[in-house]
User: Fold this.
Amino acid sequence: MPVLSALLNWYPHLQALSASSPIWAGVDTGYASNRALMFQQLPTAGLPFQFERWSEFESFCDDQLTTGVIEELTEIRWDIRPAVAHGTIENRVCDGVSTFREMAALVALVHCLVVWLDERCAAGEQLPTMPPWHVQENKWRAARYGVDAIVILDARCEERLVTDDLADLVTALEPVAERLGCSAELASVLDIAARGASYQRQRAVAERTGGDLVAVVDSVVRELREDLR
Assistant:
């Protein structure tokens, strides 16, 4: 549970990089990730509770099952959740991305983050966490502003542009990436912000074509096909 709670510090980084759902029902919502806010309306979805011990999570699950809120554990659809059947942490933060390069970058970032935090926890370090109200605010900021979001970094209310903090994070994770064999993929995380995240590219197509949503969809499909070559 400490690793899961600590991961929430970098929730906005993952959401901003992967944001790719600015349009809903044919209208630009003004959000980089409208999906993030729509999906959290489900009572068992959205941000996870920050439990300190596994026993607290078990107690929560028992309550949910007993009261009929859920019928099985997979119905707890948090943005980051324990994958009980596999003994892993499941990341559900990210929007869908349209290139394998971006997918590889995000996978490397999550993998390195989890290993980095797990090793620190195993060494006896108390992992950093933030108050739930800061985590909630960061989710909204990243969903609204994407890579232009100013995010809250810690309980001291320090703030920073998400892409500036991301650059330092990638540097901190480089030794982990080297051991895991994903240095190139981790480095390409910074290319996403430099190139423009998916929501930015979609908006550029919409602006260029006078709001033609078919052209927007075609551009996403084209990106995927070109990435396969």
